[in-house]
Amino acid sequence: MGTMDSFVPPFGLGKLAIPDNLNINISRTTVFFLLPTALLLTWYITTVTIQYYRLRHIPGPFLNAITPLVLTYHSLKGDITEYTYEIARKYGPLARLQPNMVVYTDPDTFRRICSYKAGYTKGLWFEFSRWDLNSYSCIAMRDNPRRKDRKNRIAPAWASGGLAKMETRVDKTVHSFLDLIERNYISSEPKDKSTAARPYGRPMDFGVRSMMFTLDVATSVTFGKAWGFLESDSDVNEYLSTSEKMLPSFGVLGSLPWLVYVMHAWPINLLMPGPGDRVGFGCLMKFATDQVNKRIEAINSKSDPEKEAPNKKDNVDELDIIRSYLNNGIPYADVVQETITLVVAGTETTAVAFKFALLSLLTTPSAYNKLQSEIDAYYSSHPSASPDDIVPYSAFKATSSNPEDISPASSTNSFSYLLAILRETLRLWPPSAGLFSKQVPDQGDTIHGLYLPPGTEIGQCMLGMGRHPSIFGTDEEDVKSFRPERWSEAAEQDRIDGGNRFEKMASTVELVFSTGKYVCLGKHVALMELGKFFVEVLRRYDISIVDKITPIKVRDPIVWLAKDFNIRFTRRDISTQ
Ligand code: HEM
């Protein structure tokens, strides 16, 4: 039994008298720690209880309703997309994923949330796409009127004129990839043994090379000049290796978005990437800043090519996205953010589609052969095409009158099977599988009969949308398989009974690029890259998997990262095409 003296508590609370007769055997130090801990615990329990009660009517696991850490755990474990899908399937159509987050899988809810009319704003989830808390890119803007204004300012660069310039850059990157195969990765008899790849027949890790491809496209589309990953066949500025290390932390931020403010606060912000870094993401920041500065200097100087030759349309290096953004009144610091966002938004996403499309083809020989026949038939019917030509986007692009419609099959499209493969890939492995949460507006909302109070975060489960048996197939097993034929079957069925299955399937898959006020600006660039790549690579080469037992290693902290996807290329005879 001991007595305690009075002691001075922290925070200037004055002298706290502890009565001599209080029969507690604790030290002063313990009290110092116990008091704040008890206060913190009380605050935490109250908050959790309030949050729990706010959405207690939404079905979901109890643990998810009281802590956001379940999602953090699955992000670190690397199975976050599958986990979210399981929750949505088990507890849906609207399930509780976190204390203040619900998730849904139906396309109609998706469309409504993304419409201007519904009044939803972007959720906290998007905070992690801010590299600098003092400036904004459109994707990170959460205030509706401001982001509408910004989108109107950035959209012109992506209209048809801009897209045509981007196509020349995509073509150049496809050529760089073909050169890379010939230089380093060809397994057939070398054309010229003196310059043949060394070591001869080396496999290519397509997990890494697909990222290099999309990075070269994104940097050349954004800055007018590729960083040259494919040309050097190396990890320029160690961008890939540092991004790979950073991605798991993005996963954690996706589940605990408020951590972004902690990360940007001193002294933790000193650990964040910055333009002074010699490697990684900081290099992209520096490059983006330099490129924007260069355009501003050009605008201010007499040698501004646009002032001297305003009609010189083919000057693709100068009349570019950055110029357009500056001309449209976007502030300097925000233009820098927009360009960084373009590189980030356009690379990992498109690379996911590349990897899973190729994996699906290599593990489905019937689809692989059918696609190659379609490509050969196209070139046989275009005898004037030279072996160096790259298929134009117009050969496989949307033919519908709706400009938002990415690629409906039509009887005149020579590449309907290619489109079926791309759709099937995006359906099964949506590259935008993250939650991309939005916030319920001030008046609240009711979804599937369940009331959502204002401020509730609502996340999308793209995996669930792409695997809806009622939209895509007969049963759960069928919708899980990669079966490009389902698209021609649906079109045929519609022709017989006048239904609209095909349209419903196509418009659901299209949602991987979002819709309404959030629609992806780069979707045509992404489709261009994918279509051109598969046509031109499979036209010239046969591809095989090296490791037949484990063809690919996938981890999913927030987006599917795949590596050790080793493939071999052997040359095809295209002289007879
Ligand atoms: C298969 C590849 C791609 C997919 C699945 C995809 C998906 C998406 C999605 C879902 C969004 C909307 C996010 C939201 O606000 O809810 C988005 C936005 C955006 N994407 Fe893509 N994207 C792809 C490729 C690209 C490419 C290649 C570029 C550019 C080169 C790009 C640039 C952008 C930009 C700038 C935005 C922001 C638009 C805005 O803020 O309103 N994306 N993308």
TrEMBL record:
InterPro entries listed in its UniProt record: Cyt_P450, Cyt_P450_E_grp-I, Cyt_P450_sf, Cytochrome_P450_monoxygenase
Essential cofactor(s): heme
Keywords: Heme, Iron, Membrane, Metal-binding, Transmembrane, Transmembrane helix
TM helices/strands, residue ranges: 31-53
GO MF term list: heme binding; iron ion binding; monooxygenase activity; oxidoreductase activity, acting on paired donors, with incorporation or reduction of molecular oxygen
Organism: Rhypophila decipiens
Domain of life: Eukaryota
Name of this protein: Cytochrome P450
Annotated binding of heme, by residue: C520
